[in-house]
Design a protein that fits this description.
There is one protein chain. The chain is α+β, with helices and mostly antiparallel strands. It has one domain. Helices cover 20% and strands 30% of the residues. The protein is built from 1 helix and 5 strands. Strands 1, 2, 3, 4 and 5 form a 5-stranded antiparallel β-sheet that branches. 0% of the residues are buried. It comes from Streptomyces netropsis. This is DUF397 domain-containing protein.
């Protein structure tokens, strides 16, 4: 089993829609909703970087 170091959750408007990003001791990025802490999504550092850059540039605006 691996240990995960979690960052503080990011919550929309102080509501319950909170996303938390962490990483394993091996450096694998992991995401989860705080309301579903056992459901984890893993990705690569490059995948996470691409996702964040796409969100920042507005490419994902049609999803919300």
């Amino acid at each position: 089993m691996y240990e995960i170091k979690w960052e503080e959750p990011f919550c929309a408007g102080g509501g319950n829609a909170c996303i938390q990003i962490g990483h394993t001791t091996a450096g694998t990025p992991i995401l989860r909703e705080t309301s579903r802490p056992d459901e984890l999504v893993t990705t690569t550092r490059e995948g996470l970087r691409n996702f964040i850059e796409a969100a920042k540039s507005g490419e994902l605006d049609h999803l919300v």
